[in-house]
Amino acid sequence: MSKRRTFIKHLLLQGIAIGVGTKLAEAAVSTFHRFDKSDNTDGFGFDQQPLPYSFNALEPVIDAQTMELHYSKHAAAYCKNLKEAMANEKVNADVSLETLLAEIDKYSDKLKNNAGGHYNHELFWTCMRPASENNSPNGNLLNLINHSFGSEAAFRQKMNQSALAVFGSGWTWLVLEGKDKLKIVQTKNQENPLMGILSDEQKGFPLFGIDVWEHAYYLKYQNRRAEYVTNWWKIAHWDYIENRLNQKINRLK
Ligand code: MN
């Protein structure tokens, strides 16, 4: 083969390689279409994501054994059972988790409980970080908190009261309503503010929730839910929560 022909052959092979690369890139984009912001999603998929820290990282607020059981047993079961229910009920594979929650009245209780359980816990893990004293929200989030509740202290007090008022198992949430209003919402069991079946007062975009199921705190705090919730503020991941707020507002523009 002449040098020139070898050169042309290399050019052709390169061209094919670039073409294949582009095809792979396109395939990757379409696979993840459901996480595209045009679909109004916030990025939680159907798989359980790795915990972003070790089981003991949130001590002394949440002990390692509670974290391990909570993540590896309770939350893992929601994820597994959600996929099982989706297969049984032939849910369209392209649907986003958020759409599924919005249209949850179309599905069984099993799917509802586990879709909520999965989403709620995926959000819960990302909204926590290792403890620090004087852990407080900043920026746009703090502005909206002040605007909606008067002060950060008043907001915390309302969230604490809301957490204590949940009867039995459930969650208390900070929810964005519209583009610029925050409200505190309670849901029972694994219901979630994105679920279409909830009342208008409960619905909105969840910025973070505090899990007040006993499985979230009972090993360390026994019946002392108030102490768990008061301590929880030391591990709130305010940077993530503010970023989540800002991204959501940008998607609404
Ligand atoms: Mn839980």
Which properties best describe this structure?
mainly alpha; minor pseudopilin epsh fold; single chain; 253 residues; three-stranded antiparallel sheet
Ligand catalogue: manganese (II) ion
CATH topology: minor pseudopilin epsh fold
CATH class: Alpha Beta
Which radius of gyration do the C-alpha atoms yield? 22 Å
Number of strands: 3
**What is the ordering of alpha helices and beta strands?**
HHHHHHEEEHHH
**Helix amount:** 40-55%
Number of helices: 9
Sheet with the most strands, sense and barrel status: 3 strands, antiparallel
Question: What's the average pLDDT?
Answer: 87
Specify the overall morphology. globular
Strand content: 5-15%
> What is the annotated CATH architecture?
3-Layer(bab) Sandwich
Kindly report how far apart the N and C termini lie.
60 Å
CATH superfamily: Iron/manganese superoxide dismutase, C-terminal domain
Low-confidence spans: pLDDT under 50, at least 5 residues? 6-40
Across the major sheet, the strand order is 2-1-3
What does this structure look like?
The protein has 253 residues and is mainly α. It has a single domain (64-252), classed as Iron/manganese superoxide dismutase, C-terminal domain (minor pseudopilin epsh fold), CATH 3.55.40.20. It is built from 9 helices and 3 strands; from the N terminus they run ααααααβββααα. It has helices spanning 3-31, 64-88, 97-102, 109-126, 139-149, 152-165, 218-221, 225-232, 238-252; strands at 170-177, 181-188, 205-211. Strands 2-1-3 form a 3-stranded antiparallel β-sheet. Bound molecules: manganese (II) ion. Manganese (II) ion binds next to α2.
